[in-house]
Amino acid sequence: MKEFTIGKNDAGQRLDRWLGKTMPLLPAPLAQKYIRLKRVKLNGKGAKRDTRLVVGDVLQLYINDEFFEKPTPENAFLSLYQPKLNIVYEDENLLLLDKRPGMVVHPDETERVNTLITHIQAYLYQKREWSPYWENSFSPALCNRIDRNTGGIVIAAKNAETLRIMNNKIQAREITKKYLCITLGKPRPSEGKLELFLRKDEGKKLVDVFDRPVADAKTALTLYKTLQSKGELSLVEVELLTGRTHQIRASFAHAGHPLLGDGKYGRGDVNRRYNEAKQALYSYFLRFDFPTDAGILEYLRGKEFRVDDVPFVEQYFSQQ
Q1: Would you call 242 exposed, middle or buried from its count of C-beta atoms within 10 A (0-12, 13-18, 19+)?
Q2: How far apart (Å, rounded) are the C-alpha atoms in residues 266 and 136?
Q3: How many angstroms separate the CA atoms of 157 and 215, rounded?
Q4: pLDDT tens-digit map of 64-117
Q5: 234 alpha carbon, distance to own chain's centre
Q6: Of all residues in the chain, what percent carry a pLDDT higher than 70?
Q7: pLDDT (tens digit, 9 = 90+) per residue, 184-208?
Q8: Strand partners, 159
Q9: DSSP E strands: which ranges in 205-308?
Q10: Is 212 exposed, middle or buried (0-12, 13-18, 19+ CB in 10 A)?
């Protein structure tokens, strides 16, 4: 319990507004709930949320200590009252989440709170499966990342052993991931492999693509299969044999078939015509192959997961 005495600078404020200013990490719906439950006492009694405070009022707050902290990236999850996650699968070790385009996975210079990892932390905290205030607490961590404007399955580890195993499996290519994308034009042949060489340009935050090996460029191998074509657009399934930055987007653009909506490697005139500002790319399928021992995750061997609701597929290639 913490106690506050109202001074002249805070007098005249509504009780709920004062709580919001004093405790910015406390979500407004939760603050209203605490007021109703009389965990916020005014001069020893319960009070209504719109009560006006006066000089000398004594407030007693029976609220968890963490909500009194100053906001930081590490405790931003506390401010999410209703975390929003599209859960594909969950068990005691991990979460498989369908990240929708537009959400960043980690806090960056553009977004501090509304990120995938923050929603995961809020979800597990509210389920009482995780808390940073527990001794030697492990922080939930993402095993793979997806660009802000790409959607699809992301793996989140609930414990350190799962994170270690998943990182090893991803590095050893023991997890199959398939993507759906929309390309401009019809790839020729309709099914095949793109073998190219990609080199990062950190200054431009792009990758350069080459047909032959060049200094500092890494091999990029991409399997693809055209599923449908309609007009100038094609729906293509892609499997990565290597995991390079922007591999799918840059490889198809280099092959003359940029992705619809791609602002970095695509065609602005076509994107504007279709009013698309996000690349049509979705990591929709995941299979845990695990040809080698998987430790505590052995039960996942051979299991497959997929996202059936891929927005751009329904929009441009709905079944007849």
Answers
A1: middle
A2: 46
A3: 36
A4: 999 999 988 889 999 999 999 999 999 999 999 999 999 999 877 777 788 999
A5: 27
A6: 99
A7: 999 999 999 999 999 998 888 899 9
A8: none
A9: 206-210, 218-230, 233-240, 281-288, 304-306
A10: exposed
- Residues facing 42 on adjacent strands: 45, 59
The count of C-alpha atoms lying within 13 angstroms of the C-alpha of 150, restricted to the half-sphere facing its C-beta, is 24
What does the angle CA 41 – CA 45 – CA 46 come to, to the nearest 5 degrees? 65
Cα 244 from Cα 192, distance rounded (Å):
18
SS3 2: strand
| Whether 237 contacts 180, CB under 8 Å | yes
Q: Determine phi and psi for 180, rounding to 5 degrees.
A: -115, 140
List of residues 6+ apart from 93 with CB closer than 8 A: 157, 158, 159, 161, 162, 296, 297
Bridge partners (DSSP) of residue 155 are: 96
Strand partners, 209: 198
Q: Three-state DSSP class for 116?
A: helix
Q: Write out the two tokens for 63.
A: 């609220």
Cα distances (angstroms) measured from residue 178 to each of 100, 107, 152, 248, 281: 16, 26, 10, 11, 10
